[in-house]
Amino acid sequence: MKKILLLFPVAVLALLVLLPFLWTISTSLKPLTEVNRYPPEWVSPSMSLKPYGDMFFYLPFSRYTLNSLIVASSATMLTLVVGSLAAFAFARFRFRGRKQILLVLLLSQMLPGASVIIPLFQLLRTAGLYDTHLGLILVHTAVLLPFVIWLLHGFFSGIPTEVEDAALIDGCSRLEALRRVILPLALPGLGATALFAFLGSWNEFFFALILTNTDATQTIPVGIGLFVGEFEDVWNQMSAAAVLFSIPPLILFMAMRRTFVRGLAAGALQ
Amino acid sequence: MRRYTPYMLLTPALLFTVFILVYPMAQNLVNSFRDVSLVREGGGWTGLLNYQHVFGDPVFWLAFRNTVVYAVAGTLLALLIGLGLALVLDMHTGAMSSFAATLYSIPWVISPVVAGFAWKWLLNDHFGILNYWLSSAGIARHGTSWLGNPHTALFCVMVARAWQFYPFAMVMFIAGLQSIPAEQYEAASVDGASRIRRFFHITIPNLRPVSSVLLLLGVIWSFNDFNMVFVMTRGGPINASMVLPVLVREFSFVHFDLGKGSALSVLIFALLVTLSYLYLRVLARRERG
Amino acid sequence: MKRIIAGAALVALLGAIVGLSCGRKEDAVELHDWNFGGKPRMIEWLRQRVDAFEQTRGGIRVIQSQKSWNMIRELLYADFSVGTGPDVVNVHANYAAEFGGAGYFYPVNTFPDFQEVRTWYVPHLLESTRYGENYYGLPSSGIAFVLVCNKELFDREGISPPRTWSEFREAARRLTKDTDGDGIVDQYGLVLLGGDKGGFAYRLIPFFLKAGADIMSADLKTILFNSPAGVSALQLIADMYLVDHSITPGFLAYQLTEINDLFCSNKVAMSIEGPWFRGMVDDKSPGKKIYTVPVPVPDDRIAAYDTASTLQDMVMYSINARAKHPEQAWELVKYLRNEEADMAWIREDLGAIATTRNALESPEAKNLSDLSLYVHELMHAKPWPPHPSMIAIASDIFTPYAQKAIVGELSPREAMDQAASEAQEMIEGKR
Q1: CATH superfamily assigned to domain C146-309+389-427
Q2: Smallest Cβ distance to A74: which of C13, C78, C257?
Q3: What's residue B200's pLDDT?
């Protein structure tokens, strides 16, 4: 009985909290002539999935999706590799400058994207990486690294050293120990971190906006972001794009939520 | 060989840090003392001129004030919502609670672009559902403009930001709540403390470390947040919701004045570092005392 | 085993990135065409036209991209300043001064057949693409800013479109009302495009011009929009907003989409727009009618109603000065803008006004509603002064100050004087 009583506020809160998103979903199913009815309706007479198809007319969303996938997956992999090495160093070694380097990493966490965008823009330009996948991947990796290292550092520190010591005694090098012992044990943590990195890159807008300029490299957020308020009014198609774009992260998140929460907590309470 | 291993392990990460932080900030510093434009060649040294332009620009002071409000109030709001929902979820266990937690986390999972777009449409003065409800309930006039009114634009963007950030706070609070030792509560009930007293005297103090971290992170991230404001208002109307990150882009890519944009970047970074340093010192002192 | 799969995936991914980042080497010449804005039907027509070009011409591949009109200047600058950017692009004709002057646009008058091509167009429209000695594009669509009136609301109220400022103010006042009796005003007389910094100036300046005010002196050395006539134009709008409350309160956030929404749902009666508007409204609300009339003149200038100037804008097709294949780009531009293509502007309502004499004088032209009005207005319209800083002045100085005056933060006189002095500093090269 108590459970049902508590269910009600939980459900109401969920609806309230999701209101903007639900309204977007509703809009994405309406034909253009019914988007602006007054009074506004949740369900309009001729709803359909048509806007989901129509949205490909204006912008090459299939290309944008490919770009988003390439950039997000590559950035995730790169971040995990580089981040694991660094986190391992912090978790298992005591060395001079440890605190200072940690501090520098923390500082780069504080990075205003807007502050570094100009030099980055100039740097990528000179290096021929402006408006390329690789350029954006490198930038995303660099932006995600500090937080990823922080998370992984939390995970690695939580793994007891005994198993590793046993491996070392058996003749493994430190790196082999990392690969054979720690990583498998930290797999849930790695998964959660991968999720975080993927989300971060998939959803990223600012750097993608400024460091790319053609359809061949632009990602979905840029497509959506640039078309808000354009010449022709297509709220329904843009809503459809927004909804579709949110599906991969939502699925990933739902699949990995528990691990992710555990990882966040472990990292945070360090 | 052994001694150098940690440094070797760290090298790739450090390279990236140099790439994304050290080099750009150094370049910003250099640029800020020169006359650099996006479109013209050259760039002679101009000393403090760019900084003078920044400080002399009324939009800068407006953006500065707006950013502080946006970051602090937005984060506090997010923490409040996050704490509230964490407490609600803490009362349940099991599949329903897990499912609810997932639902509550959705605002954080979706892209800021999508969030900004969703809020913009929701707040539409004539066709958004929010205005319809508010005017039906008699709270607001029909057709009230939220994002087009210089007095309410910043507030709206701030709420949208809090909406995006609260799940992060919620998750941290849940972890924090679960780590409070049960003995403290038991001891308190034995002493006859009411629910409310237990909340204020046990729960809140135990959550202080988490709250401190959240506050710092939240303020820093919100201070740097470009996406929400850009998508919802581009800083308008008439700069009423202009924040510093959006202003940097405006100086550099709309007015093409890279020198001025760089000066502003340096200022923002210095401000954040100073604030964080002060904050951490206050925290450390409190922990000691 | 897992390692092999992971390794293979990595290699495949890297290969994909490298492959996609490098261009494909082909025998065909590749041209990049950025298209800014446009109604869906116009976009479709352009794609068909480009396909026809590729087929008849052969050996040229055109890659079209659709871009957002309200970020056009930043997007182009970002790329041009790096030395990249599209080969062919459609822009405001007044970009000739800024981009042509900066050496970003190709002077099309240097092509051998230019003297013949130029005869296709109405001469004074072609002149809008000129800056200094060179012409920087071919005219695409002529634009004159006019007053559009919601026919249904006007007929319901029993009034006809206004001609003078007094009539205009009165009409707006009468058309601002509470239509459903709930005590809240839900219909407004006028709406302006406040959310687009560049576009807003285009809506306001016609009033200045109709009042006889100039934006700049002919020698481009002095700012003139703060003349008494100019200030009076701003005063009109400010009064309508602050005193009559006949302008929609949320106008500062409105883009074209919002204006279209309001018009179609009968929440607003008038706006200042151009040739795209009729089609836009019809797409959203098929069959909805509008009156298109010249922008009103001050009461004491009623005698000059037929000849007073409105703002002229024009879209032109330009070529990137650093295009790798300028001759082929020129072929594409000519194909997109020749007399045959221009006839499409007449035969269908694509939201553009034709610019070739052949099209404008053709018998079919008589069938187009509004065309005669637009052509008439275009004949005396004035474009933005061809100063390289004009666009920056309009969006970054004029618009914010004008908006402040309208919402009451400054008086129109103060706002225009301050704007004029900042603009003056800008054209004199000081910051």
Answers
A1: Periplasmic binding protein-like II (3.40.190.10)
A2: C13
A3: 80
